[in-house]
Design brief:
It is a single chain. With about 160 residues, the protein is an alpha/beta fold. It contains six helices and five strands. Strands 1, 2, 3, 4 and 5 form a five-stranded mixed beta sheet that branches.
Length: about 160
């Protein structure tokens, strides 16, 4: 189970306060930092923003996957944020983003980072995955749903 390790219950926010992408990055980096205090928040935010400046990570309807590789992270960590109202994300389809999967990995472990992105992309292709995710009310429900969805790919 890859995604369950990257996105523990403690880093899942089901009611994001943010309405703009910059606020969102700060909110989710702070959420990750509250669970994994051993990384540099400034480095993470700077690298996330630099990556986003190259090309938006708002890749499909309602979903954003901001990601970064930094030196102060030992293993991949992440957060999930859900916004019922939507976030102005400058996504490819110009629609608001409602589900965000933020991933921060070690700059020397690009292969593992790519595997995580690939696994997430595969889960996102499950029919009605995003709609079902948006209907959930708690971080525990989101976590369990992510784990069950990932497990269903192995069957």
């Amino acid at each position: 189970m890859v995604l369950g390790e990257i996105f523990p219950k403690d880093t899942i926010v089901v009611n994001l306060l943010s309405t703009e992408k910059d606020e969102l990055f700060e909110e989710l980096v702070e959420t990750i930092h509250s669970h994994h205090a051993d990384f540099n928040k400034s480095e993470a935010l700077q690298t996330l923003n630099e990556r986003e400046a190259k090309m938006t990570t708002g890749i499909m309807h309602s979903v954003g996957i901001p990601h970064a590789l930094i030196s102060s992270v030992k293993k991949p960590i992440g957060a999930i944020g859900i916004s019922k109202e939507g976030i102005d994300y400058d996504s490819l389809d110009k629609a608001p983003v409602h589900v965000v999967f933020m991933i921060i990995g070690n700059e020397n472990d690009t292969e593992h980072h790519i595997q995580i992105l690939k696994q997430l992309a595969t889960v996102l292709q499950i029919p009605h995955f995003v709609e079902n995710l948006l209907s959930l009310k708690s971080s525990s429900e989101v976590y369990n749903f992510i784990c069950k969805s990932e497990e269903s790919l192995l069957q």
